[in-house]
Amino acid sequence: MTLLAIERMKLFTTRSPWWCMFAALLLTVGLGVLYAATAPAEFTVVGATQSGGQLGMMVIMVLAVLAVTTEYRFGTIKATFQAVPNRTAVMLAKSGVVAALAFVIGEIAAFLAWGVSYLITGGETLALDAGHEWRNVAGLGLVYAGAALYALAVGMLVRQSAGGISLVLVWALLVESLVGLLPRVGDDIFDWMPFAAANQFLQGGAPQTPMTSQMPEAPIGPWASLVYFLALGVALLVIALITVRKRDA
């Protein structure tokens, strides 16, 4: 508990996490409400209220990278490791705090985007009547927490802010899309990309609509996709923790 309290204090005593939290909320809520309010009626579904979720997730990943790399940049990680020689415990505490924060931000942003959109449109199509609709909204926090694990692992491995941020953003926004363009095998590989799996968890299993009719069928179900997404994040984090233990601070 002491380590968790220390990591919480370290996280919130700098300005960048506050700016990232504000930006994530603004993007997730603002873009979701804007889309839901301006889209044609046939596109106004619960999933549309979460249109800003991907950009919000990018900001959360930036926050997670900075939570690690700023300590290396300013040398505070050395003092932390001297005070607590168990490096794995330190990094697990940091990961727990950041992932919990990401989950809370995701839940607040998702329900705010849905709630404001519901009030603006006044449409019964935005009512949370089915399991997949609840997953569209309530599942965003789980995806944000998982994305934070990926970014934390990258931050531990790279230890440099610009490099870590570039890696997570380029992968999530560009690399997975480019993989899908490969001839013959592109679609099959894309189905197993981590953030494609996260999107399948959020959007999969819903009845076909003009918004989802062009989406290819995933090889596994929504909840299995979430488990796969989180398992890959945990595996990458384990590799990062082993690396942190073996090299100099």
Order of helices and strands: HHHHHHHHHHH
Percent helix range: over 70%
- Determine the structural class based on helices, strands and strand pairing: mainly alpha
Tertiary shape: globular
> What is the percentage of strand-forming residues?
under 5%
Largest sheet: none
**Radius of gyration, taken over Cα atoms and rounded to an integer in Å:** 19 Å
- Average pLDDT metric: 86
Number of helices: 11
Number of strands: 0
Oligomeric nature of the chains: single chain
Distance between the termini: 23 Å
Return residue spans where pLDDT drops below 50 for at least 5 consecutive residues. Answer: none
What does this structure look like?
The chain has helices spanning 2-12, 15-38, 53-74, 76-83, 87-121, 131-138, 140-158, 161-179, 186-190, 194-203, 222-246. Helix 5 (87-121) packs antiparallel against helix 11 (222-246) and helix 7 runs parallel beside helix 11. The chain is globular, with a radius of gyration of 19 Å. 42% of the residues are buried. The longest helix is centred in the middle third of the chain and has 35 residues, at 87-121. The model has no long low-confidence stretch (mean pLDDT 86). The protein is built from eleven helices and no strands. With 249 residues, it is an all-alpha fold.
